[in-house]
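[Meeting: bench + compute handoff]

Bench side (C.D.) handed over the final construct sequence. Compute side (W.E.) agreed to return the predicted structure before the next meeting so the bench team could plan truncations. Sequence as handed over:
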Amino acid sequence: MPHMSHARLVLRAVLIASAITVLLLTSIDAQAPRTVQDGVFSDAQATRGRTLYTQRCAGCHGPELAGAQAPPLEGPAFRFKWRKEPLSALFIKIRYTMPPNAADAAQLTPEQGADLVAHVLKSNGFPAGTADFPAANATASSIGWPAAPAGEQPSTMAVKYAPAASLNQLMRGVFFPNSNLIFTVQELEAEKLPPQPPSSKPGGLTIFEWGQQIYTGWPVVENAAAALADASTLMLVPGLRCENGRLAPTTEPDWIRLTDEMIAIAKRTYRLAQTRNQEAVSEFTKDLSDGCNACHRVYRDVGGRGRGANTAGGANAPGGPNSARCMHR
């Protein structure tokens, strides 16, 4: 091997190190999640989407996406609503639920859904790229949204009303029935939800049973998931109390983290329900169950924290089954 001077050895080492650095940076950039700011659709696709929008959507959302009979699809309020969702959520909303109550023949194709997404993005000022937003597997797209600019940050509003319900009432009135309805997708086809009372019931149906028959099928599952997502935010309202009178730990990091996880799970359930995929929703109910249990393990009575105790003071007395609720394990 020819002799190499010290200077050349140093230069070679520098060049090798630089090449490695470039490769590492390229690899990191390749793994960085894309956002709608990165040119995820083409101008041609947005043009197709604009034509389709005029034909199929403008009557409800307005010719300039500013809203009419239906909400606006452009502007700060729209971007605030979707910014924390993956782009797949917007695609699912457009592709599977628009236009509302459409017959199967009128439902949008995946390609039409992707074209409309492109038009909406361009109308909101996001740049076009060189390739179309792909319709294939768009329901699982990991493309996200960039952080909101300073001018679009929501203002912080003081809580005007103290919570009327305790955490326990919130669980029994909202979380328990809606979660169980979603879990029922494991056992019944969604078209048969909610389970109907027998028509031959003696004395006829109660008003509650009659009301249960008005809204049926997949919209019921969607409504249940949406209720869980929005009701989860109530778990962070200052002043919320547990059944035992203790303030809910709304500022504790674990409480906030577990609430955020439940909101994400509920929103994912909502998106899956919109796709009308029975198997996918049924499989995802395990995540919903795990999300509930994760919080219960930390903040509900378990093990030796009063479970099964009999005291004269009742459930909320020291050592009673509810006495340690809302205390971190």
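W.E. noted at the follow-up: The first helix runs from residue 6 to 31. C.D. will use this when planning the next construct.
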